[in-house]
Amino acid sequence: MIVHLHSSIPTKIRILKNKIEEDSTLLQGLLSVLSQNKEVYELLVIDEDIKPGFLIISDKIELRTTKLLNSTITKDSELTIIPISHGG
């Protein structure tokens, strides 16, 4: 799984990668990838979920509002996290 972080997220990290079990959900995989970096994890995660105020996008689809975060991960899953207030 590859996770891209929008440039308005206050961290120097822009891309995180990790191999994830294919029977995991997108949310489980995302949390696993984010946990590689304590700073990023603390910025984006609360109570084993992504904090409010962030869009999670894959293939031009926002995953949280479409309730697709609990769908099964694919081996080439790629997500982008963008703050709702990202300045354009």
Give an overview of the whole structure.
This protein is α+β, with helices and mostly antiparallel strands. It has a single domain (2-83), classed as Roll (Ubiquitin-like (UB roll)), CATH 3.10.20.30. It is built from two helices and seven strands; from the N terminus they run ββααβββββ. It has helices at 26-34, 38-44, and strands spanning 2-5, 15-17, 45-46, 49-50, 54-58, 61-62, 78-83. Strands 2-1-7-5-6 form a five-stranded mixed beta sheet, covered by helices on one side. A hairpin with a 2-residue loop joins strand 5 (54-58) and strand 6 (61-62).
Keywords, please?
88 residues; two-stranded antiparallel sheet; 18% helix; globular; Ubiquitin-like (UB roll); alpha+beta
Number of strands: 7
Secondary-structure class = alpha+beta
Average pLDDT for all residues = 93
Largest sheet: 5 strands, mixed
The radius of gyration computed from the alpha-carbon positions, rounded to a whole number of angstroms, is: 12 Å
Which residues form runs of ≥5 with pLDDT under 50?
A: none
Order of helix and strand elements from N to C terminus: EEHHEEEEE
Cα end-to-end separation = 26 Å
The CATH top-level class label? Alpha Beta
* Proportion of beta-strand residues: 25-35%
Reported by name, the CATH topology is: Ubiquitin-like (UB roll)
Could you state the CATH homologous superfamily? Beta-grasp domain
Secondary structure tally, helices: 2
What is the CATH architecture assignment?
Roll
How would you describe the shape?
globular
Give the tally of structural domains: 1
